[in-house]
Amino acid sequence: MRRRRFEPMDGVGALSRGTLARVFWRSLFILASFNPRDMQALGFTFALFPGLRKLYPDPTALETAVRRHLYCRFNCHPYAAAAILGGTLHHEERIARGEEPPERANEFKQALMGPLAAVGDGFFWLSLRPAVGAIGAALALVWSIWAMLAFILFFNFVHLLLRSRYLIIGYHLGDRVLSTLSLTRLPAFRSRLRLLAALGAATAAAYVTATLPVRETGPWGDLVFAWVAFGAAWALLAWGRSSYFVFYALALVTVGAGALFFP
Amino acid sequence: MSLGACLGLAGVAGLLGIERRAFLQAMLSRPLVAAPLLGLVLGWPIAMELVILGAGLELFFLVGVDLGAAHADHELIATCGCAASAATLIHSGAPPTASFAVATLLFLPLGKIGILCETASDRFNACCLPRLSDSRPVRSQLMANLFGIWIPFLGAAVAALAASFVSARWLVPLSARLSHRWIVSLDFVWGLFLVIAAAAALRALPRPHALPFLVAAILLSVSMIALREGWL
User: Contacts from A158-161 at CB under 8 Å and sequence distance 24+?
Assistant: First the structure.
């Protein structure tokens, strides 16, 4: 028998793996109806529905439970929201048994959505994705399509593994989910991932400057052009200009110079 | 280019638009993946060429992220425009690097225009929300969540279709008449874009990390050229 690494709390376990799998599938649509008014409330309730349908066989009780979540504003990182989905089902199971008051589920959501959004945004969007993207882009310049496949496989291995585990951990642990998630020390990986991102971006910079797709001025002339352009771009970006402005300004200078000096 | 290929480009772009926001968020809509996928509609050789375009756009849009209700540049719509245009030009026989330069010069601003698509999607979703007075079964009310897939689909599909049309109608005939001087200039512009994208990516990362890597990058590129020229 497979040993769990955590002990389930409060006797939850009415929901089968199939129901949790349906909740997980629906959680992939959590951002579909994002809007400034209720944020992800509709998407969250859409994901929760298979679990609520099992916990509340009575149609009136089911409607009450659904409306409880439908009109409660919710916003969180889509991957980290899986932990809140699982924890909400944990509380709804206890509410359905009469062991908790109905407002407990929304209190849980409101308490966790901010901290988990910060963890999710900081790790996935601001660290993991730039790191994998920069390394993937640098490798793509050399390995072509294989780098793209590596990028997708690696990112989604981490993404789907964590997302599914968050749902299961949240369902079994309820309020303890945040302390358990803090043991994974995701924020500690952020600085290392940002170093990797810098490594990828620097490698890409080195490769593109060394292999500029022009052969008109010789290798050292191309290198000087590339690093002068890099320095000009860096200076303009430091000055507060957007990357779009930098590209179009330098492109205009390049095309103008080409019109004047190229044979 | 055939109607089937145009519709194929629009369809793939639309599905990537859905994947970016409404479903999965598995980074298939990132430029590094989206550009070759769009190129695959026109064949494997074009997909292989568009990997470089995707890599450049990935660096350019590396750190943009939607936080809460604030929207970053729409990297997918920009990628759909650039990739559809570049694929159409390469398919007609234009040189790849010149095609990339033309495509990025014309369609990179779609990244800013795409924010309007996000805002429109937010407003449409707000209109579709179930009301307190709604008497339909809750299961039907919750299906309104899936109405939110349409605007991301249409935004990306229209961008790809429009870029492909503009390229086939005007840019392909123009590219056939380009002189050597213009082709060399466009090659420089594409190289410039890659350099600026790398600078923007490195600059967007936390400051203490960037400078040592910048120095290392300079040394690495000099070493690469010296190795290539047989000096080391």
Answer: A158/A128, A159/A79, A159/A124, A159/B25, A159/B26, A159/B27, A160/B26
CA distance A12 to chain B (A): 25
* Cβ count within 10 A of residue A116: 24
Select the residue of A34, A129, A138 nearest B122 (Cβ to Cβ): A34
Q: Between B207-228 and A218-238, two packed helices, what is the crossing angle to 10 degrees?
A: 170
State the greatest distance between any 2 C-alpha atoms of chain B, in Å, as a whole number: 79
C-alpha closest to that of A35 among A67, A65, A73, A69: A73
Q: What DSSP designation does B168 have?
A: I
User: pLDDT tens per residue, chain A (263 residues)?
Assistant: 444 455 555 666 788 899 999 999 999 999 999 988 888 999 999 999 999 999 999 999 999 999 999 988 999 999 999 999 999 999 999 999 999 999 999 999 999 999 999 888 888 888 888 889 999 998 888 888 888 888 899 899 989 999 999 999 999 988 888 887 776 777 778 888 888 888 888 888 888 877 765 555 666 777 788 888 888 998 998 888 889 999 999 999 888 887 777 66
What is the distance in angstroms between the Cα of B2 and the nearest Cα belonging to chain A?
26
Nearest to A194 among B111, B187, B209 (CB): B209
Q: What is the SS3 assignment for B67?
A: strand
- Asked if B185 and A259 come within 8 Å (Cβ–Cβ), the reply is yes
Angle ∠(B65,A234,B232) on CA atoms, nearest 5 = 110
Q: Are A205 and A214 a contacting pair, CB within 8 Å? A: no
The token duo for A150 is 């590596």
Q: Using an 8 Å CB-CB cutoff, list chain A residues near B187.
A: 213-214
A152/B27 Cβ within 8 A: yes
- Residue B162 phi/psi, 5° resolution? -65, -45
Helix ranges (H only) for chain B are 3-21, 31-40, 44-60, 75-91, 96-107, 110-128, 138-142, 150-166, 172-176, 180-204, 207-228
Q: Three-state SS for A39? A: strand
> How many other CB atoms sit within 10 Å of the CB of residue A61?
14
CA distance B214 to A45: 47
Cα B223 to Cα B232: distance, rounded to the nearest angstrom: 8
